[in-house]
Structure formats: C-alpha cells, structure tokens
UniProtKB/TrEMBL annotation:
Keywords: Chaperone, Coiled coil, Cytoplasm, Stress response
Cell compartment(s), UniProt: Cytoplasm
Bias kind Low complexity: ranges: 30-60
InterPro entries in the cross-refs: GrpE, GrpE_CC, GrpE_head
Region (Disordered): 1-79
Function: Participates actively in the response to hyperosmotic and heat shock by preventing the aggregation of stress-denatured proteins, in association with DnaK and GrpE. It is the nucleotide exchange factor for DnaK and may function as a thermosensor. Unfolded proteins bind initially to DnaJ; upon interaction with the DnaJ-bound protein, DnaK hydrolyzes its bound ATP, resulting in the formation of a stable complex. GrpE releases ADP from DnaK; ATP binding to DnaK triggers the release of the substrate protein, thus completing the reaction cycle.
Gene behind this protein: grpE
Entry keyword annotation includes Chaperone: yes
Basic and acidic residues bias spans: 17-29
Name this protein carries in UniProt: Protein GrpE
Acidic residues: compositionally biased ranges: 1-12
Length: 232
C-alpha cells in the first residue's frame, strides 16, 4: 500500500482511508495543504485592505514646503476666493435685476389696467352723452305727469335701468351740499333756515351724470345761500 493513502481506524472500528497525495490524480494540479490555504487567504486579505490606510508618499509634507511653495499655494487660494466672490457678486446682481424687472412689469400691468379702465369709461361716457337729451325729455315728461299710466313709463324705466347698468349715475339731489365739482348753480335763493351755514341744493333744474369718478355732465341747480353769505 502506498504511503500517500493510509488506512486509519474510525470510531466504529472500521478502516478510514485519507488521501494525502500532493498531486491530484484527476486534474494533475498540485494540492494545497490546509496551512498553505490559510496563508494564501491571509495574504489576499492583507492585499485587499484599502490603499488609503497607507500614507500617500506622493503628497507633500506641509512641514517640507518651502517659502516659495507656500506663497504659491496662498496665491492660488486667494485667486479662488476672489473668483468665488466675483461669481457671488454676479449672482447678486442678477437677482437684483430680476427683482427690478418684476417690479417694472407689475407697474406696467397696473398702468395698462388703469388706462384700459379709463378708455372704457371715456368710450362709455361718449356714447351715453348722446342719450342725455332723451333722458332730459323723460325727466320733463315725468315732472309734468305725462308718463303716469302711459306705455312710455315702462320704456323710460327700462331705459334708465339699462343706462344705470353701464355705470351712469345721476348727480344732483335736493338738500345735499352744493359742490362746484359736480353742480352748476344757475340761481341763488336765500335760505329760509337762519341756522344754515353752507350752500345746499334747493332745486334740480337739469340732472347731471357721471361714470365712476368721471363727470359726464354737471347738474344745473338752484341753491340756497346762507343769510350771512356775501352776495356774488
């Protein structure tokens, strides 16, 4: 029997054969002993450790830098800092420009909306001005009682409602204070109230009209003048 295959007794009393040949008879390759396998595994594990754990021999030691090298590094650092500051300044300037443009756009939009509203009011006032004589005729007919019980009363009601829907408002009401911005005084009467201190409307001769803040036509009125007011 070869020395590479030796029988041994197992615990049950039977022979056990262990193959200790160093050459595998099937593949022809050398076999590793358990000790050789452990040594190879330890060597592979040591080689697999990260290279970062070892000191980088190529990195210069700060203590070994010369004054010229230090000055060069400091110059590069200052250059990078200046470049960063320049970029930050450009970003800040760009943000400020964006805010300025946004504010200009908001102002432009508001101005356009105001101008559009003013143009609309002017156009509406121009169209409704042509209807004011018809409204005056209806007012006079109503004062004389010509509308009572006639079909024209319904027409007058619808016409006034339609015009009011376009924003036209009547100006001049008996008893309200006289306002030169909206009223035109065509007659002055002494106020029967001795306690009165301001001019008030005594009668509306012709209605005035406005659209919003735009006066289409002032109201022609007769006014009460306080007794102590100077004569004009």
């Amino acid at each position: 029997m070869s020395d590479d295959i030796r029988p041994e007794d197992d615990n049950e009393g039977g022979p056990v054969f262990r193959d200790k040949r160093r050459i595998d008879p099937e593949t022809g390759e050398a076999r590793q002993s358990p000790a050789d396998a452990q040594a190879a595994a330890a060597e592979a594990a040591e080689a697999a450790q990260p290279a970062a754990s070892a000191p980088d021999a190529s990195a210069p030691d700060p203590d070994d830098l010369t004054a010229e090298d230090r000055a060069l590094l400091e110059g590069e650092a200052q250059s990078l800092a200046d470049e960063r500051a320049g970029f930050e300044a450009q970003i800040a300037a760009g943000q400020e420009e964006v805010r300025r443009l946004q504010a200009e756009y908001v102002n432009y939009r508001n101005r356009v909306e105001r101008e559009r509203a003013a143009d609309k009011a002017a156009t509406t006032a121009s169209v409704l001005s042509a209807l004011l004589p018809a409204l005056d005729d209806l007012d006079r007919a109503e004062q004389h009682g010509d509308l009572d019980g006639s079909p024209l009363a319904l027409v007058a009601q619808k016409l006034r409602a339609s015009i009011a829907g376009l924003g036209l408002e009547a100006v001049g009401v008996v008893g309200e204070p006289f306002d030169t911005a909206m009223h035109e005084a065509i007659a002055q009467l002494p106020n029967p109230d001795p306690q009165a201190t301001e001019m008030t409307i005594a009668d509306v001769v012709q209605r005035g009209y406005r659209i919003g803040e735009r006066l289409v036509r002032p109201a022609k009125v007769a006014v009460f003048v306080p007794a102590d007011a100077p004569a004009e």
